[in-house]
Amino acid sequence: MHVKSFNFAFKLLDPLKFEAHVKTNTYLKQGDRLLKLTGVERSFTPDDALDFDLEFGDVIQLTFSDVVRGSFECSVMDFDLRGLVVKVYDCDILGKKYKLFSLYSAENDLERLYADRLVRLTPINERISRLAAKLGLNTSSLSIL
Amino acid sequence: MERSTITEEIGFPKYSEIKDLTPEKIGEISRTFMSKLMPKVNEDYKVYLTIPPDLKDGEKLITHTLSTCPHCYSLLTATVFEREGKVYIRKKCPEHGEFEELYFGDHSLYEKFRKWQHDGKGIWTPNVQTSSLCPYNCGLCSRHKSHTALLNLAVTNRCSLRCWYCFFFAVKAGYVYEPSLNHIRFMLREARKMLPYPAVAVQFTGGEPLLRDDIVDIVRIAREEGYHHVQINTEGIRLAYEPDLAIKLREAGTNVIYMSFDGVSPYTNPKNHWEVPYTLEALRKAGLGAVLVPTVIKDYNLHEIGAIVKFALKHSDIVRGVNMQPVSIVGRVPKKEREKLRVTIPDVIIEIERQTNGSISRGDWYPVPSVAPVSRIVEALTDRPRFELTTHFVCGAATYVFLDGDEIVPITRFVDVEGLLHFLDETAEKIKGGSNKYIAALSVLYKLGRFIDTSRAPKRFRSKRKFLKYIYNILLKHDYSALGEFHYQALFLGLMHFQDPYNYDVSRVQRCDVHYAMPDGRIVPFCTFNVFPEFYRDRVQKAFSYTIDEWEQLTGKRLSEEVYRRDIKKLLSGEAYRKAYEGIVDVDSIPYEEHVTASKRFGIPVSE
Ligand code: SF4
Ligand code: SF4
Fold first, then answer.
1. What pLDDT, in 10s, does the model give residues B346-357?
2. Residue B10 near residue B548, CB atoms below 8 Å
3. What is the b/e burial string over B555-576, where b = at least 16 CB atoms within 10 angstroms of the residue's CB?
4. Residue B390 Cα, ligand 2 centroid: separation in angstroms?
5. Over the stretch B556-599, which tens digit does the pLDDT of each residue have?
6. CB contact under 8 A, A46 and B47
7. Cα dihedral B247, B253, B256, B257 sign
8. Most buried residue, A48, A107, B204, B498, by most Cβ within 10 Å?
9. Are strands B319-326 and B523-525 parallel, antiparallel or unpaired?
């Protein structure tokens, strides 16, 4: 199953000043632990727009139609894998730092099972516990995130 | 696609077979057709996300955005720029060439308005899978940024007028779209499920919604389903002849009648010029408020916009507001023709300033999202997501005015609106940052008075206590009857510029909060529903409609006989007619023949 991850820096002046830096770390569940994945980065193309929307349209409410308005530098990593995929988004939004999570099942389809939303963030421990429960792992095995 | 073709193609049952099922069952069946009815990339539209068009001499870049080709609806990148004090949008379709359109008629107002942009919290309960690019994935999808502020629900596509430009009504469309009561209940329920904030306001629209014999039941159902605000979008003609219907509608829970009103003369308002005085009388008797809704077209009625405001003020005992809608250009219109029609929000604001001799100036207007701090403070004080108005700043603007004797007094003359909104926003931020909310509430109460100069207020507001009480009740007690009471004292002036394929901006529609409930359970922004009717409005309504024969058999009515004929002589001779326009337009100076010609030219026959 094809899975994409995005790292980007985005700056906006109109209508308001806005700045976001997002780095995605991608993990695959293997047995009772998470394995960090590495890949080759390539440049973002308009063909990635829908995947970008799917990933960030609700999590940080940033869409392709937002990023075309400002300066947008984005690299994409492509993975071919099967199983449960955890994504950790290290975000710096207007100078504030956040760690957000999402969980995908990459089997015949790519299905998102869980995602944080910046506008209703609960404390990080709660979110890690929820993620661990969905992964069927102990919270201690998520300490690498 | 004819109704029969589309329904056969997707295997949809006859509407008469599902209409009487329970709302749950109708929903279950309808939802299974949702994905088949969605627009399809490369079949319905193409995506050309190439480099946006360059600037030309004398142009200054503002931003880039996504837009559409007015001919083939392909998704395109576009450039928004300033030239000679105005804002334009330009895009280039590889198949149909370059298009340039006025986007916002005054750059300084653009600069003022953009500072008020405030995004909503998104949609936590999307109705569809996110599977295509915006705006061809409605909706609402997980990307959408604003909850529904006003839900539109079309209850019929029948209409007894025959306006020359309309291709939407049943006779021309060739089918009757008229969802059953249970189907309407299903659609209302879908929008009530929305999180973070469910729909609370609904507008029944058409066609002409008052043609439905069960319109009173429809209003009642909306109330039963938890809608606090119900309005009906109508030309109002039936109310002129059946004043009792206004009483029934009010008793059932209608809050306001949204009435088309394009001008004060028969030339600019051939749709309902003659009936409006009687409709207003009926509403007066029923105690049911009206909002006048002019579509503003540059070479047609822009010159009357000041007179429309004065007409509303003259009837402010029953008219609660004027909601002006700069024209949205439908179909393929050459540039020269578009220039004769096109007005944008600043053009109307500046014209109102000119036509009211500065009584309502351009500085009195604020964009819709400027009121977001009011929601933010209420939310901070109550710890719950609250109703927010978070449209794009270009979409709408508003102000309040009061009549003080003969003088028009905008709210900005005695309330430091900007200072107040900033103060509320800062206080909300402090509460979010951990400040004690009870102390914050007290400080709001204590400091509110600083933003109001009652010596400059209309006489009835000279008591500071009374005015503060309104604001206190709205902000701190969340008592919206206070808002209603305030409305009765003031005239709301609003502007909403619905988009069209020429000036389309995806950034705007992604923030849209005026939505349509669709019969398949989708909720779709107004500016995709009506801008791409082939993909949304018409496609889905055809699928859920009766053939004309079916409908006629079912109801025993004949669609072709549903034609309104105007008795101009009788309408002109009534006392209400003369009184309504007195001091606004000299109706006696217009010869009878010109009344008749105006009506007929528009498409409404006259009984002579
Ligand atoms: S307009 Fe809204 S609902 Fe429609 S595709 Fe765009 S984000 Fe989704
Ligand atoms: S209906 Fe159109 S103009 Fe109004 S808020 Fe929605 S996108 Fe903007």
1. 999 999 999 999
2. no
3. eeeebeebebebebeebbeeeb
4. 10
5. 999 988 889 999 999 999 999 999 999 999 999 999 999 999 99
6. yes
7. negative
8. B204
9. unpaired
Within 8 A by CB and 6+ apart from B62, the residues are A14, B80, B81, B82, B87, B110
Residue B584 to residue B265: CA distance in whole angstroms: 9
Does ipTM surpass 0.90 in this model? Answer: yes
Q: Does A109 touch chain B (CB under 8 A)?
A: no
Contacts of B544 (CB under 8 A, 6+ apart): B12, B15, B30, B177, B179, B183, B519, B520
User: Pairing relation of β-strands B319-326 and B289-293?
Assistant: parallel
- Kindly give, in sequence order, each residue whose CB lies less than 8 Å from that of residue A122, ignoring residues fewer than 6 positions away: none
Q: Do B163 and B212 touch, CB atoms closer than 8 A?
A: no
pLDDT tens digit sequence for B454-496: 888 888 777 767 777 777 776 666 665 666 666 667 899 999 9
Pocket of ligand 2 (CB under 6 A): B 391-392, 395, 496-499, 508-509, 512-514, 525-527
Answer yes or no: is pLDDT of B2 > 50.
no
> For residues B271 and B330, which has the higher predicted lDDT (pLDDT)?
B271
Residue B187: per-residue pLDDT: 98
Residues of A in contact with B49 (CB under 8 A): 46, 49
Concatenating the DSSP letter of every residue in B352-417 gives HHHHTTTSS-GGG-EEGGGGHHHHHHHHHHHTS--------TTTEEEEEEEEETTEEEEGGGTB-H
**Would you say A101 and A46 are in contact if contact means Cβ atoms under 8 Å apart?**
no
